Amino acid sequence: MANPLPPRLPVPGPRWNICRPTRPTSIHIEKMWSKVKEFLRAAKARTSDALDAAIATAFQSVTPQDAASWFASCGYTI
């Protein structure tokens, strides 16, 4: 089977990828996971059924206001 895409030609000169000091694309996700993990640690679920219930409750504890503030802290406006 032939490759349907033509080969990429090298572009002369340096390539610059300008990034912010922090990666705002992932920081808000990390803040959400931090809240979920904190909730799960506090729940101290010791059975799979209790863990399933705790996970559902942990995700329900994330509010739209939480998400908006996490995005805002990363420099995004909603």
**Mass-distribution shape:** elongated
Strand content: under 5%
Largest sheet: none
Number of helices: 3
Unreliable segments of 5+ consecutive residues: none
Query: Termini distance?
Result: 46 Å
Record field, number of beta strands: 0
Q: Mean of residue pLDDT? A: 82
Question: Helicity, in percent?
Answer: 55-70%
Global structural class: mainly alpha
Rg, Å, rounded: 21 Å
Q: How are helices and strands ordered from N to C?
A: HHH
Primary descriptors:
78 residues, mainly alpha
Polypeptide structure, described:
Helix 1 crosses helix 2 (48-60). This protein has 78 residues and is mainly alpha-helical. The model has no long low-confidence stretch (mean pLDDT 82). Helix content is 55%, strand content 0%. It has a domain at 24-73. The protein is elongated. The chain contains 3 helices and no strands.
Secondary-structure topology with pairs:
Elements: H1 24-43, H2 48-60, H3 64-73
Quickly describe the structure.
By secondary structure, the chain is mostly helical. Helices cover 55% and strands 0% of the residues.
